[in-house]
Amino acid sequence: MRYSVSVAAPNSSRPLPALLRALTGDRPDRTPVWFMRQAGRSLPEYRTLRERAAISMLDVCLRPDLAAEATLQPVRRHGVDAAVFFSDIMVPLRLAGVGVRIEPGVGPVMAEPVRDAAAIAKLTAHQYGQDEWADGVQAVADGVATVVRELGTPATLSATPTALGRSLTPLGRELTERELAGLAHSADVAGWTPVLGFGGAPFTLAAYLVEGRPSRDHLAARSLMHADPASWERLMTWCAELTGQFIATQVKAGASAAQLFDSWAGALSPQDYRDRVAPYSALAIARAREATSPTTGQSVPLIHFGTGTARILADMHDTGAQAVGVDDRTSLAEALAALSRSRAGLCPVQGNVDPALLAAGPAPLERAVADCLEAGRAAPGHVVNLGHGVPPTTDPAVLTSVVAQVHGSADWRQVAAVPWEPRA
Ligand code: CP3
Questions:
Q1: Which of 114, 65, 315, 85 lies closest to 228 in space, CA to CA?
Q2: pLDDT tens per residue, range 355-388
Q3: CA 111 → CA 15, 54, 98, 263, distances in Å?
Q4: Residue ranges around ligand 1 (CB below 6 Å)
Q5: Best label site of 38, 178, 278, 385, fewest CB within 10 Å?
Q6: Is pTM beyond 0.90 here?
Q7: pLDDT 10s digits, 48-65
Q8: β partners of residue 197
């Protein structure tokens, strides 16, 4: 099969990418779509990359070429509207010299959980980019910059590797026509694809720090919040500054939007969220928005996402986020009703196809995507995503077909139907 690959010419009158338009309350012709955890284990090419590199997940995050390659893989394959930088919410902890590893099949595990004032004092003496970790911060910046170079900016459309006729991956392999078609589909009429930076919200980071490992109800963290408010304040302020700096690193390297993940915020009562958590998320967002993206010349729109957040969506918006991510336990209609009660008023929303539908067969999935698009029409701006991350067992071809449906693209649907040929 031949693919038409059109290379964009630089032209300042081109529209901004659909993702950036939707996040600023616009309704572009094509509804943008990307997937949380679009990079990673659902992709055989990612599994190959990991096997070859034979280093840990967090070490991959600090290798600019590998992180850039993992970031680009789902863009080439799925033609999504954004590249989410391959990293992890735990990376800035490591860049502050804190002992953390990702245990396969378990998640983040801390060398020393921080359960009391003394441990928190010790932790908060650590600084982002201290000592030899300045190189790690630079590696994150270099990884983002590599992706931005591959995917273009308004200023460098004619200088992207593909526009120059160079079609090598960051690891030096020749891109296939199918992969070039994916990049072209992603870039669409804007001619470039935005890179999305991210970080973990203070509560989600604190939950891992205090528990020491993943937990279901975050009991120790929630106890500490009430037992020792001064230590809680110290811990949360430190986490907010850390994540703010981590997002700022990505923005200054060229990310043009960012997402704050508060995965576990739904474990809190609305009162605790409002009083003891939201102010620190607001601090992280404020710090992130102090950075200017060289890609757009502006501070970046922030998407604020959590799960189980139906009752705190308005508070999440009022932390200063430009858009709110909605999980699949809340309908977009409910989310919009809640957001209309926020001080800042309605805002663009992201979400919220149930990841379970990805394995439910084509008919239920297509219905769910159509319903999601329909519900999103009531929002000032809509970015389609899943309600949470892509399950590792997902058939990637199913994700590509979701992109084709969201974009209403018969051409892309045809491409999506052709089996992916693995490339070494
Ligand atoms: O494609 C993307 O979305 C970008 C990369 C990304 C990763 N983690 C890579 C990763 C993003 C955005 C994250 C965010 C993240 N990490 C969150 C917030 C989002 C969410 O899922 O709620 C959280 C809570 C973490 C912490 C974390 N890191 C967990 C819970 C796990 C899973 C552990 C496991 O093995 O099941 C990780 C590891 C991780 N982060 C993997 C990937 C691709 C898998 C490990 C691997 O590939 O070896």
A1: 114
A2: 999 999 999 999 999 999 999 999 999 999 999 9
A3: 48, 22, 8, 22
A4: 36-41, 57, 84, 86, 88-90, 102, 104-105, 107-108, 198, 204, 261, 263, 389
A5: 178
A6: yes
A7: 999 999 999 999 999 999
A8: 258
